[in-house]
Design the sequence.
């Protein structure tokens, strides 16, 4: 006789994206369709769960309209955390506590929507389930604008951020065209992505019949040399009035020092030991102003690139929903210690499907832009990069507009302090 289904719990973790809530909607719908009684949502991931903070999602997603709004809402509906689970040897009590809470909620399936660090959580919890003889299944649902998860063609959240970056860079380039030509200016655009250049490379999407695209693109995969950068900027400015350069927040010297650290004004480090990377463009602009004496402007896309739901990619939002459903299906069918991956079948027409892979081969790894997708001189990306990214930004998701502004689904009390 088939075992009676009980409940599901889902959490969101790490940096938010424009698509993470679409995955949440996909998990919820699939769990209900597959006969689970309750779908709980951890508030602020495992950190909140440890404090007994969760909601019943049925109280929140009550209609088809709610689900559609959720898919169009940026940030993480449940709230996220950057919480590093200790190892079992370091602190077994944390595991006992989590499993006790899950047992009290009669949870069978635990789905975690997140990036590298979140997959570390799935890995550790699924390992503990085996050790402790628990039959709770732990499955990861990929998410990160950084697109740096191993074994998957790309991650939900990346396509929408890439679309926003391509669009904004094009608008910035266009703005620069209005300048009178006598003095010239250099605009440096700083883009997220930490040690992976997938997002910064997406600035190339500004290029088209009506736009030349950025003049130079610097990814963190290669060491950054300030004197060569100044020379490049000088030679570009000799040819045109407005120069636009895209740089990753994570560019660093050959010795490994982040360029933004040269600014010396930021030193925030999260629970995973990641330094907050900000100020790269500002620092480079100060160098250019000093060395070349031209007008400069530092533009940090910052939070905008991961929260621009009004400019989301339809492919991305649909895939995020499907991947959430696939994670739920995998857990329901007995998988644990796995993450859903997207497999690309073809570029044109774009076709992709999902599979599950061992999370142990994914957690804590970083998938970088291949060297051959960066030009020899290290200042641009190649056509292969464009072929890869273009399908992921296709299509639009019309926001549901109220009083001229997109409407979101929000959780009352979301601003309460932890
Ligand atoms: O991990 C995703 C990400 O958006 C990175 O690209 C970026 O470095 C980081 O989050 C920024 O996080 P926060 O907003 O917490 O500073």
Sequence:
């Amino acid at each position: 006789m088939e075992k009676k289904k009980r409940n599901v719990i889902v959490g969101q973790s790490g940096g938010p994206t424009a698509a993470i809530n679409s995955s949440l909607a996909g998990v919820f719908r699939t769990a209900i369709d597959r006969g689970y009684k309750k779908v709980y949502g951890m508030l602020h991931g495992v950190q909140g769960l440890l404090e007994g903070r969760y909601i019943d999602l049925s109280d929140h997603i009550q209609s088809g309209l709610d689900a559609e709004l959720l898919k169009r809402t940026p940030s993480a509906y449940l709230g996220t955390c950057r919480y590093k689970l200790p190892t079992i040897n370091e602190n077994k009590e944390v595991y006992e506590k989590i499993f006790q809470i899950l047992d009290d909620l009669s949870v069978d399936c635990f789905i975690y929507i997140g990036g590298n660090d979140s997959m570390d959580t799935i890995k550790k919890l699924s390992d503990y389930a085996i050790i402790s003889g628990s039959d709770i299944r732990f499955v990861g649902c990929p998410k990160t604008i950084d697109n740096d998860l191993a074994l998957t063609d790309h991650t939900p959240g990346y396509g929408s951020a890439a679309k926003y970056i391509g669009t904004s860079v094009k608008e910035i380039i266009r703005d620069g065209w209005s300048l009178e030509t006598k003095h010239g200016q250099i605009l440096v655009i700083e883009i997220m992505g930490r040690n992976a250049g997938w997002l910064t490379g997406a600035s190339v999407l500004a290029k088209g019949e009506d736009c030349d695209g950025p003049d130079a693109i610097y990814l963190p995969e290669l060491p950054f040399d300030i004197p060569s950068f100044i020379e490049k900027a000088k030679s570009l400015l000799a040819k045109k009035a407005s120069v636009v350069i895209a740089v990753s927040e994570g560019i660093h010297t050959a010795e490994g020092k982040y360029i933004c650290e040269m600014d010396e004004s930021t030193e925030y480090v999260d629970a995973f030991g990641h330094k907050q990377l900000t100020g790269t463009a500002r620092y480079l602009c100060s160098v250019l102003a000093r060395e070349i004496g031209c007008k400069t402007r530092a533009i940090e896309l910052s939070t905008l690139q991961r929260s621009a739901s009004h400019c989301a990619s339809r492919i991305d939002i649909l895939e995020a929903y499907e991947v959430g459903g696939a994670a739920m299906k995998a857990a329901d069918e007995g998988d644990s210690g796995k993450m859903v991956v997207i497999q690309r079948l073809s570029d044109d027409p774009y076709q992709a499907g999902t599979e599950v892979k061992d999370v142990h081969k994914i957690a804590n790894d970083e998938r970088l832009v291949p060297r051959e997708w960066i030009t020899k001189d290290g200042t641009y990306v190649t056509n292969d990069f464009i072929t890869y990214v273009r399908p992921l930004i296709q299509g639009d998701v019309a926001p549901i507009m109220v009083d001229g502004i997109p409407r979101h689904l929000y959780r009352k009390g979301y601003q309460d302090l932890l």
User: Anything to note?
Assistant: The mean pLDDT is 95. The first strand starts at residue 7 and ends at 12. Residues 23 and 321 are 4 Å apart (CA to CA).
